[in-house]
Structure formats: structure tokens, C-alpha cells
Amino acid sequence: SFPSRLFPLREHGMNWRAKPLTWKEIQAFKKSEEVMQRFICAYQLMLRFYGITLVNEETGELKRAENWAERFQNLNRFSHNNLRITRILKCLGEMGYEHYQVHLVKFFLTETLVKETLPNVKKSALDYFLFTIRNKRKRRELVHYAWQHFKPRSSFVWGPHDKLLKYR
User: Fold this and answer.
1) What radius of gyration do the chain's Cα atoms show?
2) Where are the domains of the chain?
3) What's the per-residue H, E or C state across 6-34?
4) Rounded Cα gap, residues 95 and 101, in angstroms
């Protein structure tokens, strides 16, 4: 399928024909400026499909696209998008774009928990997107952010409440 070719991983996905990447292949990709630029273009293409704009290529900052309302309806209606987003997040980590991962997960946490525009993405954002983050400190920050905005807070199961209360 389209995303498995654009966002290859070192693991088998839903497309059994997609061959997992090797560590050597990933290193070769990272050394090619052309491959990495195409990767960013593919990322921007998928973001646009989901109603999101990459504001800053350097930092990975995101915002809603102009057509966000229409695209978010699609995201809410079709749960297969959540698998694709998880794949994209994992691939961002493999390709050395951990900062892009963080921005994308925070974007979805904000839209699901704060703005409540993507109720059908909330479970995937908490169960899967959050745990694709490779950087432990950034992942903890995002778990804390999710906990701060989760209602009711007593039902939050993605981190220990005693530690989240003390988190700084």
C-alpha cells in the first residue's frame, strides 16, 4: 500500500508484501540528501491529506491546514488512518526525525484531548502514537501533557499518577 512504500519500517506491517527495511538500508537512506528530501516531501503530502501543515521544516512545528475541518472528518470516520499515522511516526523515528515525531504526537494529543476535534483518534493517540516516541524524556513530557488534559484524570492509565503529580 501507499504508506508502506513511502514510510518503510524495520518490522512487518499490515501489508505482507512490504519488505522490512534493514538497519544498513536506513543508514544508506540517511546519507542521501535526495532520499531524505523525498522523505520530507512524502511526510508533507500525508500531513496535507490529514489536514495538517508543516510550518517549519527545521523544527517540525505543525498547524491545522485550511481544509482541516473536512480532513478531520475523514480522520474521525476511518480508523485505518490511525494505523498509517502510527507507521509514519515509527518511520520518522527510524529516519532520525524524532523532533517531527514529538510535534505530530503533541498535535494529535491537543486535537483529541484539548480541542476535542478528533474523538475517534484519541484512543490511538494515547495507546500507540505516544509510545512511538523514542526519546524517553520527550515521551514522559507528552504523557504528562496528556495526563494534564485527560478527563476524567482518575481514569488515565498511560502513566503512574503518583509520578505524574510530581513531574517537573
Assistant:
1) 16
2) 23-166
3) HCCCCCCCCCCCCCCCCHHHHHHHHHCHH
4) 11
- 24 residue type, one letter: K
What span, in angstroms and rounded, lies between the C-alpha atoms of 96 and 80? 25
pLDDT tens by residue, 11-59: 666 666 667 778 898 889 889 999 999 999 999 999 999 999 999 999 9
Instruction: Tell me the pTM.
Output: 0.90
β partners of residue 52: 64
Q: Where are the alpha helices (DSSP H) in the chain?
A: 2-6, 23-31, 33-50, 68-77, 80-94, 98-109, 122-127, 136-149, 161-166
Q: Higher model confidence: residue 149 or residue 5?
A: 149
Give the per-residue pLDDT at 18. 66
3-class SS at 117?
Answer: coil
pLDDT of residue 70: 96
C-alpha span between 54 and 104 (Å, rounded): 10
Dihedral sign (CA 11, 17, 18, 23): positive
Tally of CB atoms within 10 A around 108: 26
Q: How many CB atoms lie within 10 A of CB 5?
A: 11
